[in-house]
Amino acid sequence: MSLPQSYRIAILGATGAVGAELLDLLAERQFPVKRLKLLASSRSAGQRVPFQGEELVVEEVNERSFDDIDLVLASAGGSTSKAWASKIVEAGAVMIDNSSAFRMDAQVPLVVPEVNPDAVATHQGIIANPNCTTILMAVAIYPLHQVQPIQRIVAATYQSASGAGARAMEEVKQQSKAILAGEAPQPEVFPYPLAFNLFPHNSPLNEAGYCEEEMKMVNETRKIFGVPDLRVTATCVRVPVLRAHSEAINLEFATPFSVAQAREILSQAPGVKLVEDWQSNYFPMPIEASGQDAVLVGRIRQDLSHPNGLELWLSGDQIRKGAALNAVQIAELLAAQGLIRVPERAAVGTKG
Predict the structure, then answer these.
(1) Is 145 a catalytic residue?
(2) pTM over 0.90
(3) Which end of the chain is more exposed for a tag (fewer CB within 10 A), N or C?
C-alpha cells in the first residue's frame, strides 16, 4: 500500500513482545514513519532499541508524551490504555489499542481489516484491535459468512504461551528445561505449569462458567460481523506451544455448504493460506504459522453430525496477525483514507 504522507508515531508498550513485533512490521511493510517514539513504564525507560539503522531510547510515558504524535499503537495492557486514552485523543492523535479496554465500547470501532475495513471511518480517536483468537477465526470464516450467513459457531482454541507475553514464553522454556532435568517446574506468569501440560484458559469465570477469553470470542465476533444475536460458543485452552494459536471451528449454516465450495473460497480469501495434504495427513501447525502473516486454514470437512455443518482447523501467529499485524493494517487503512492527524491539518475523526 503506497501512502503519500509520513507520520509521527508512538508505540506504547514498546518493550513487550507485541511492541517488538510492531517495530519489525513498521519497517517490513515500509509504513511511512516521520518520527518514532518508544514509550513504556519507568522500569523499561532508558533501554535502547534498534530501528532501521538507528538506536531509539525508550521513554517513560508521561503527560506530554503525545503532544507531537499523530498515531499511537498501544500494547501495554487495558489499565494503561485507559489511563492514557483521553490524553492521546485530546492531543489530536489516533490510538489503535491492542488491549480489551475499549473493544465493546459502542463508540469505538472493533476492526479486522479483512472483515470490516469501513469501520475505521467511524472512529472518534480510538480504534480497538480484537482479541487474538477472534482475529484469527474472523479472517478464516468471514469469507464463508459472506457467501452464506453463519448460523452458529462452536470454537475450541489451543492457545500458545505468546498470548501471555514474552515472560510467559520464557517461563515455558525454563519449565521444559526443569522437567527434562528431573526438577519441579515453577509457575510464575501462569497459575500452573504449562510445559508438558495444558489447562483451560485461566481468565476469570462468569456465572455461566465461561471464562473471560471465551466471552471475548463471543461478543467480539458478534460486533465485528455486525450480527448481535449470532450464536457463538467457545472453549479456550492454554497449550505448551511457544508461539501461534490453533483453533478447531465448527460452523452451522441454514442450508448445506459444500466442502468443495468452502475450499475454493478460502483458497482465494485475503489473509488466508490453505494448507491441506490429505494423503500425508498434513494440515496447519503452529510451528509453521509462526512468523507468517497469513492464517493457515485446512482440514475442511463436512460435519457428520449435521447436514448444514462444516469443520475446519486453523493456526495463526498470535503476536503477528493476532495482534501487531492487525494493528499496522488498521494504521494503513487510516493513512490511506486520510484519517490520521498530520501536522498540516486538524485532526480528523477525533474528539478533543
Answers:
(1) no
(2) yes
(3) N
